[in-house]
């Protein structure tokens, strides 16, 4: 029999009797289990069969005897004072002598009971307290799933028809909104690339609110023959947005007698002929006390294209007339007119008894009609008309270099608001046939007392429709100027 390397070879001398005696002595030193003597052959002398050491390390946890590699390993106990055992004493020992009765369970390594917990020879029916029986029951909320039963499938959420309709409607609205935004940006970029630029602003200190100056430039392009030549400012319109939100459109008669910087007193439209847009801006600022923030110049030929781009406009005038210069025959009432007729209607003045005052009123009527038609359903739902309007406006307008396209859009909104609120007209007038001499001719003289108060209210945003000049000229005779 081969022995483990930890055991030294047996002594050369000795006999089985002396080895048996030593085994008996060692067995006598082990703690004895009461009643174990009845299992031995002799109760008088202790034997290895009768000696049952407590805490046999070869017992498994499930009360079964573990087989040792060598019979001498069955008595290994680190707590024994005679440990390690003498291999010579175990030379003649058989493996059967070390078999322990199954009635005695192994000692719990954590507990050292002084006596067995059951009668000798009885088989324990339960495990020690340190080894509780494993529970085979499942929690009540987690029952076992049979192998043949399919696993439950998650329920698919049902989409209600109204919810689906709402999602589709919301998606359509978002797509339409994005399309409108991108289309608007496209039109703005198109206008920005075509619109003209001029040097106009004076750089004077700003006044409260925002002021736009619109000048209708007449280059005499053969549209009409009214006896005048050269480029003139045919119409002058001042649009002011007060800090409080009030918007007003004030027409300044082209023949208004005022001071022209560096030129002396003359008609207002002469400033445009002498110095172009910059001199006209300075003259208007000196007359009104307002600083011009934005300048817009409209070619009179462009007015015809703008009206045609929106599909024509409807204008009303309660007087019938026939103008010998334009050959325009107008019957009192409302009429749908195209671009060319609208241009003749807004420029006619010799057949009007109120002269230049009546002409400024007709010009504002055409402007209001164009603004109303531009935001009508007929134009808003037609991309082709929107594109035509953008192209016509871009080619007809010229703005100062500091003004942006968005500022022109703000101007349009301010004009619509002023037209809707009735805040439009001319400032108080003292005379429509004033002749100062010095070859100036007949001019329009503003009221020296009421006009300054009028422009102060315009700046503060406290104007009322009663502050404008009435249509009647208070019986003052009007002689149109020919220069």
TrEMBL record:
UniProtKB keywords: Membrane, Transmembrane, Transmembrane helix
Record flagged with keyword Transmembrane: yes
Keyword Magnesium recorded: no
Matching Pfam families: LytR_cpsA_psr
Region Disordered: start-end pairs: 1-153
Comp. bias (Polar residues): 74-83
Ranges annotated as spanning the membrane: 165-188
Residue ranges the record marks as coiled coil: none
Residues of the Cell envelope-related transcriptional attenuator domain: 232-374
Low complexity bias spans: 34-47
Pro residues composition bias: residue spans: 1-11
InterPro entries to which the protein is assigned, alphabetical: LytR/CpsA/Psr_CW_biosynth, LytR_CpsA_psr
Family matches, as NCBIfam families: lytR_cpsA_psr
Family assignment from sequence similarity: Belongs to the LytR/CpsA/Psr (LCP) family.
Name by which UniProt lists this protein: Transcriptional regulator
Organism: Mobiluncus mulieris
Lineage of origin: Bacteria, Bacillati, Actinomycetota, Actinomycetes, Actinomycetales
């Amino acid at each position: 029999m081969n022995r483990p390397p930890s055991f030294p070879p047996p002594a050369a001398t000795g006999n089985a009797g002396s080895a048996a005696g030593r085994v008996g002595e060692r067995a006598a030193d082990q703690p004895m289990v009461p009643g174990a003597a009845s299992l031995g052959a002799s109760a008088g002398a202790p034997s290895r069969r009768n000696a049952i050491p407590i805490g046999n390390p070869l017992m498994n946890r499930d009360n079964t005897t573990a087989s040792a590699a060598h019979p001498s390993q069955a008595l290994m106990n680190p707590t024994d004072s005679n440990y390690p055992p003498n291999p010579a004493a175990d030379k003649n020992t058989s493996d059967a002598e070390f078999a322990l009765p199954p009635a005695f369970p192994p000692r719990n390594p954590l507990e050292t009971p002084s006596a067995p917990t059951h009668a000798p020879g009885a088989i324990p029916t339960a495990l020690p307290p340190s080894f509780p029986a494993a529970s085979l029951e499942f929690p009540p909320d987690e029952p076992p799933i049979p192998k043949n039963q399919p696993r439950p499938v998650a329920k698919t959420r049902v989409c209600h028809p109204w919810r689906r309709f709402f999602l589709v409607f919301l998606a359509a609205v978002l797509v339409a909104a994005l399309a409108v935004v991108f289309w608007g940006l496209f039109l703005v970029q198109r206008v920005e690339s075509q619109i003209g630029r001029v040097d106009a602003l004076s750089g004077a200190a700003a006044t409260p609110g925002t002021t736009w100056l619109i000048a209708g430039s007449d280059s005499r392009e053969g549209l009409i023959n009214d006896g005048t030549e050269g480029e003139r400012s045919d119409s002058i319109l001042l649009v002011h947005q007060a800090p409080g939100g009030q918007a007003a459109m004030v027409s300044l008669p082209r023949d208004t007698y005022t001071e022209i910087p560096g030129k002396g007193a003359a008609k207002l439209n002469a400033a445009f002929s002498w110095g172009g847009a910059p001199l006209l801006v300075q003259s208007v600022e000196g007359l009104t006390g307002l600083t011009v923030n934005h300048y817009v110049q409209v070619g009179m030929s462009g007015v015809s294209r703008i009206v045609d781009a929106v599909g024509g406009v409807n204008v009303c005038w309660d007087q019938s007339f026939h103008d010998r210069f334009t050959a325009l025959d107008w019957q009192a009432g409302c009429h749908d007119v195209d671009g060319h007729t609208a241009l003749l209607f807004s420029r006619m003045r010799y057949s009007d008894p109120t002269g230049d005052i009546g002409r400024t009123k007709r010009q504002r009527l055409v402007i209001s009609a164009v603004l109303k038609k531009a935001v009508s359903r007929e134009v808003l739902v037609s991309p082709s008309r929107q594109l035509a309007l953008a192209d016509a406006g871009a080619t007809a307008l010229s703005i100062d270099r500091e003004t942006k396209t968005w500022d022109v859009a703000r101007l349009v909104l301010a004009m619509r608001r002023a037209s809707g609120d009735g805040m439009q007209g001319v400032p108080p007038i003292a005379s429509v046939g004033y002749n100062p001499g010095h070859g100036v001719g007949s001019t329009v003289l503003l009221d020296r007392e009421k006009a300054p108060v009028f422009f102060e209210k315009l700046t503060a945003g406290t104007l009322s429709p009663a502050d404008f000049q009435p249509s009647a000229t208070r019986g003052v005779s009007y002689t149109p100027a020919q220069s």
